[in-house]
Specification:
By secondary structure, the protein is mainly α. Helix content is about 80%, strand content about 0%. The protein has six helices and no strands.
């Protein structure tokens, strides 16, 4: 009986093993399928990397555009305008014969007009005195304009240094362009100062030359009256303003 029991148990174990073993045999490793899955995952990963790179490039492009569109933090416009206004005010304060065509025409039709025999000695004295005062005032105006231009030199030096520094540190195309434009504006202001100084000096020289020419004309008339009998030459003070 015991032998029969052992045989029965052995048969049961064999049956179980016979059932389990085929079930495990169904799990089979497929190398080609595994490789295909790896390749698919690699391609998906590459696509993700490409998308990340594209997003990074777009972000950098936006950053560069923002830099190119950012304004220059430094501006010299107010200082330049102040310098130009100071020079303009000095020119506008010109005494007696100012920078005005109508005033110049009136002066040369009266004080600087050719001397005529009908003018009185007092008129000659008055015109000579007016011409002398015009020359002195023009010389003073020229010196004031020149002093103003010299006064602007220190401001221009500071602005030039600041603009060059801003240009070198520009983070984008717009900032570099704005710095360049402000440097050009500074050069234009300096040219305007130079023009004003030359104009003021030229005005003084022109009035001085006109005074000398009128004095020579008036001197000839004085000599004629002195040598002509019956002219009744009244005063020698006419020569005091020659």
């Amino acid at each position: 009986m015991r032998r029969l029991a052992l045989l029965a148990n052995a048969g049961t174990v064999a049956l179980v093993l016979g059932v389990v073993t085929p079930a495990r045999a169904l799990i089979v490793f497929d190398p080609s399928n595994y490789v295909q899955n790896v390749l698919t995952a690699a391609r998906e990963l590459q696509q993700i990397n490409n998308q990340i790179t594209s997003l990074q490039n777009e972000a950098q492009m936006l950053i560069n555009q923002a830099r190119n569109l950012s304004n220059l933090p430094y501006s010299s416009l107010q200082q330049l305008q102040s310098s130009i206004q100071r020079t303009q005010q000095l020119l506008a304060q010109a005494q007696r014969i100012a920078y005005d065509v109508q005033q110049i025409d009136r002066a040369f039709a009266t004080s600087y007009a050719p001397v005529t025999g009908s003018q009185s000695s007092q008129a000659l004295i008055t015109n000579a005195q007016s011409r002398w005062q015009n020359s002195v005032a023009a010389l003073q105006d020229a010196l004031r304009v020149q002093a103003g231009v010299v006064g602007n030199l220190d401001t221009n030096r500071v602005q030039t240094s600041a603009l060059v520094t801003s240009s070198q540190g520009a983070s984008g195309a717009l900032q570099a362009t704005q710095a360049g434009n402000q440097i050009l504006a500074l050069q234009a202001q300096q040219l305007a100062d130079l023009t004003a100084a030359v104009a003021a000096q030229g005005r003084a020289q022109s009035l001085e030359a006109a005074q000398r020419a009128s004095a020579q004309d008036q001197g000839r008339e004085q000599l004629r009256r002195f040598l002509t009998p019956g002219q009744g030459y009244q005063s020698s003070n006419v020569q005091m303003f020659h």
